[in-house]
Amino acid sequence: MKRILLLGTTLWLGAWMVSCQTQEKQQKDFRAAKERFTTNCSGCHGAQMEAFTDRKWKHGNEPDSLFQTIKYGLGDLGMPSFQNAFTDEEIQDLVAYIRTGIENTGQYTFEEETIRSDTFETSAEFDLKLDTVYSGGAVPWGMVFLPNSELLITEVSGRLYKINAQREKTEISGGPETRAFGQGGLMDIELHPDFETNQLLYLSYAKIKVDGGDTLATTAIAKYKYAGDRLTDGEDLVVAMPYSKKPYHFGSRIEFDDDGYLYFSVGDRGSRDTNPQNLDNHCGKIHRIHDDGSIPMDNPFVGDSTAIQSIYSYGHRNPQGLAFNPSDDQLWENEHGPRGGDEINIIQPGINYGWPEVSYGINYDGTIFTSDTTRQGMHAPLHYWVPSIAPCGMDFIDSTLYPQWENQLLVASLRFKYLNRCKIQNGKVIEEEKLLQNIGRVRNVKTGPDGYIYVAVEQPGSIFRLIPIQK
Ligand code: HEC
Predict the structure, then answer these.
(1) Is 94 close to ligand 1, i.e. is its CB under 6 Å away?
(2) Residue span of the structural domain in which 48 resides
(3) Same domain, 66 and 139
(4) Which residue is closest in CA terms to ligand 1's atom 21?
(5) CATH of the domain at 86
(6) pLDDT score for 156
(7) DSSP string computed for 191-236
C-alpha cells in the first residue's frame, strides 16, 4: 500500500515537474517570440499586438496560413519571407504568439490611442498645446495653404478637402482618378509659386491600370486649375515608368523652388536591384521639370540618350520628404531605409545617393544585402536613423514663434508616432528631440502662413496646429 502511495506521489511529482518545465519552456518561447515580433515585424505591423491581430485577415489566421505567410512572405505585397531568418520552430512560436494575441484581444479601436492630453512637454521654454484644425478623417497625406490661408489636404483614399477659416470641411471634386492602393493613393499637393495669378495646382497620385489579370500602379504628377470647389483642366505631366504590381514605395513628394522648377520624388517601387541605379526608368529618383512638364535644359542627364531626362538625382529608396531650407535654398530630402538606414540627404544634380549599393540598413529578415555604407562616387547621407523611424513629411521651422527653434528641421515619424526636431549645424544634425510622443502616426508637417507648425496625424486623420505656451 505504502509502495503504491509512494509510486503515486513520485509519478505525480514527476508529472508536475515536467508540466512546470513545459510551462517554463512555453513562457520562454513566448517571450522569445514576442521579442522576435518586436524586432522583425513591428516596423511594418506596429508595436502593439492588438493593432496587428484585430484586423480583417486577408490571408487567413489559422495556424497553417499564418505559418505560410511568415515563412514564404506575400510575393508582391511587401510582406518579406522569413525562411532564411527563422527555423520552422521559431515561426511556429511566432504563430502561437500571434494566435494568443487574437484570443486576448478585445475590440481594438484606434480611438483608444488618440491623444489623452492636448499639451506636450518639450525641452524648450515652452510646451506645445494642440489646436485641432480638423479631426475624424481618413489617412491624410499632403497639405498646402491657399493664399487666403485656407488649407487643402489630400487623403490617400483619393479625396481632396478644403478647410476654411471657420474650420468647415468641403470636398473638392475633379481630381485624379485614384484610390488607396497599398501605400499609394492620392498623395502630395503643391501650389504653383504664381498661384494667385494662374491658379495652378499640382498633385501626385498612384495611377492605376488593369493589364490582363493584373492591377498595376505607378506614381504620376498631374497639373490642375483650381476653380473654387473643384479642379479643372487636369493633365498628367509625368507618368513614371515602369508600372508595377507592387503596391509600395511610391515616393511622391512635390516641391517647387522660387524659380518655378518643380521637383518630385519616385520610390524604387520595390525593385531595388533594377530601378534606382539605372537611369532608364523613373523609379528611385528625384526629378526636376518645368511647371508645364517640359525638361529644363540644364538637367544633369540631358543629352544622355539612355537616361530619363527629368532625373535630377538617383540611388534613392522611398523618398517621402522634400523641403527647401529657407536659410540656404538647398533641397533637403528624407527617405525610408529598409530595416534601419532611413536617411536625410541634401539633393544635388547628377548625384548618386547609393541605394542599394550602400546603406546603413539590413534586410527585413535580418540578413545583409550590403556591408558598405560609403563608396566612391556615391553620396553618404547627412544623417541616418537605426532603427528606422519611417520618416514622412518634413519642413523647416521658418518662423519666430518657437524661440530657439528657428530654421530647425522637423521630420514626421510614422513608425514611432512622434515629430522629430533636428537642430542642424554646419550641415550636420547635432541635436534631436522627440516631440508629441505617441500622438499617432505623423504623416506630414508644415509651417503655416501664420507661422505656426501644422502636423497631419493618422488614426483618426487629424490636423493639429502647435501653439507654444509658456511653461
Ligand atoms: C516590410 C514590411 C513588413 C514586415 C517587416 C513584416 N510584414 Fe507582415 N505584412 C506586410 C504587408 C505589406 C502585408 C500584406 C498586407 C495586405 O495584404 O494588405 C503583410 C501581411 C502579413 C500577414 C497576413 C495578414 C493578413 O491580413 O492575413 C501576417 C500574418 C504577417 N504579415 C506577419 C508578419 C510577421 C510575423 C512579421 C515579422 C516576422 C512580419 N509580418 C513582418 C509587411 C511586413
Answers:
(1) yes
(2) 2-104
(3) no
(4) 79
(5) 1.10.760.10
(6) 96
(7) E-TTHHHH-EEEEEEEEEEEETTEEEEEEEEEEEEEETTEEEEEEE
Q: Encode pLDDT of 390-401 as tens digits.
A: 999 999 999 999
In this structure, the answer to whether residues 164 and 100 fall within a common structural domain is no
Whether 110 is covered by a domain: the verdict is no
Q: Assess contact for 242 and 217: CB atoms under 8 A.
A: no
d(Cα 44, Cα 48) in Å, to the nearest integer? 11
Tens-place pLDDT, residues 291-333:
999 999 999 999 999 999 999 999 999 999 999 999 989 999 9
Average pLDDT, the chain: 92
Whether 249 is a known active-site residue: answer yes
Do 195 and 141 belong together in one domain? yes
Query: What is residue 18's predicted lDDT score, i.e. its pLDDT?
Result: 67
Residues 84 and 129 both lie in one domain: no
Q: Which pTM does this prediction carry?
A: 0.86
Report which of 293, 379, 387 is spatially closest to residue 342, judged by C-alpha positions. 387
Report the number of distinct structural domains present in the chain. Answer: 2
CA–centroid distance, residue 68 to ligand 1 (Å): 11
Residue 216 Cβ inside 6 Å of ligand 1? The answer reads no
Q: Are residues 98 and 61 in the same domain?
A: yes
CB of residue 97 inside a 6 A radius of ligand 1 = no
Atom 39 of ligand 1, residue of closest alpha carbon: 41
Q: Answer whether 364 contacts ligand 1 (Cβ < 6 A).
A: yes
